[in-house]
Amino acid sequence: MINESHWQHIKHDFLHYFHRPRVDLLVWILVAKLTPTYQRKLNNLTLDIGRYRGLAGWRKAFKQEWKKLEWRPITLPLNPRYRPQVKQWACTCPSQAPNRFLLCKHLVQGVKPKRHILVLEVTRLRTAPFWQHPSLIPKTDLPKGYVDRDFIQVDIPNEQQLDPQQNEPEDGNESDGEEEEYEYASATYTERMDELIGKLRSFADGLHYQKQFRDVGFLNTLEKHGSGFFRMLDSCLDKERRQNHNGGAPTRTWDPKAASAMFYRTQPKD
């Protein structure tokens, strides 16, 4: 396969200019044209040459997309359904999931990095946060609606700071506020999730009761107004089935059909 790929490179870049080339011409192309190209690529990958190396092809498109989103206006106050979280590089707006680089204007404008350095050094990850760089930290003046806004670091008054000779807080006092804050956030999430689960179960019981009436009008209304939820439901169940089926193909990372199931964690297989 590798030899075939190299031959295609020779054929399309050089040999199509000549009709039935001589063997000595082919040898000259291999020695003078093809070999130096691969030698430069190998040197860029293995040697510390003291200068910028050739960038990956996607970084140019990433820079263009980032620059475009930096200047796109954001409507304030934010839509209550949008919950940008810069630290996790996740946003519930409909623009991030289908984006090639998982960017949206809320996340891009929630940080203030030096773009020319970011483009050269930023690292892609397969799980949240999808982009990693020291400069990707939330701004201190984020508008209301950002999840990071409630967790911005503040200056500690002098009277509340630790003694320089004291390395740790006294026993029983470490991170009490952090624990309470985490417990409050967990309780809020649990309450919201329990409420949704209760509603879905009650509604499922109601749907089961509707079967006896065979009302086509209600069924059509249900399919029309619940189409978005049902598409998400199908995506999550399909992801569950693929993850727990050894013989099937896994869900593709950038599959637009599975965008709504991106944050859905599948259950472990029994």
UniProtKB/TrEMBL annotation:
<keyword id="KW-0479">Metal-binding</keyword>
<protein>
    <recommendedName>
        <fullName>SWIM-type domain-containing protein</fullName>
    </recommendedName>
</protein>
<keyword id="KW-0863">Zinc-finger</keyword>
<feature type="domain" description="SWIM-type">
    <location>
        <begin position="82"/>
        <end position="115"/>
    </location>
</feature>
<keyword id="KW-0862">Zinc</keyword>
<dbReference type="InterPro" id="IPR007527">
    <property type="entry name" value="Znf_SWIM"/>
</dbReference>
<feature type="compositionally biased region" description="Acidic residues">
    <location>
        <begin position="168"/>
        <end position="183"/>
    </location>
</feature>
<feature type="region of interest" description="Disordered">
    <location>
        <begin position="241"/>
        <end position="270"/>
    </location>
</feature>
<feature type="region of interest" description="Disordered">
    <location>
        <begin position="157"/>
        <end position="184"/>
    </location>
</feature>
<dbReference type="GO" id="GO:0008270">
    <property type="term" value="F:zinc ion binding"/>
</dbReference>
